[in-house]
């Protein structure tokens, strides 16, 4: 499941995922946000909140995410910050391992620091 996070500061966009992220949910919620951010001219700031009970991503959603990443290569210089709010161990390890591949800065925050994640992704120092 996925839902759009509303009211994030500093023009940030974001989603909350839990259960299994499926292609149809990716297409309906995540892709439109990324497309709108790419169409703008300001910095791109993204917050991903991984809720308890996150099972993973189905193959269709994973494929869509890979295609979207390739399609958005021209916007990489505008990706400023990505905040991931997660206590899912394998996600946190994967981010630490592959952070060099993510454009801009990326940080992982525990759920108890959701407010700090929102402030940081909006551009506040921290």
Provide a descriptive summary of the structure in words.
With 126 residues, this protein is an alpha/beta fold. It has one domain: 2-Layer Sandwich (Transcription Regulator spoIIAA). It is built from four helices and seven strands, in the order E-E-E-H-E-E-H-E-H-E-H. The protein has helices spanning 23-39, 59-71, 89-98, 114-121; strands at 2-4, 13-17, 20-21, 44-50, 56-57, 79-85, 105-109. The strands form two sheets. A five-stranded mixed beta sheet has the order 1-2-4-6-7, with helices on both faces. Strands 3-5 form a two-stranded parallel sheet. Helix 3 links the parallel strand 6 and strand 7. Helix 1 (23-39) runs parallel beside helix 2. The radius of gyration is 13 Å and the shape is globular. The mean pLDDT is 90.
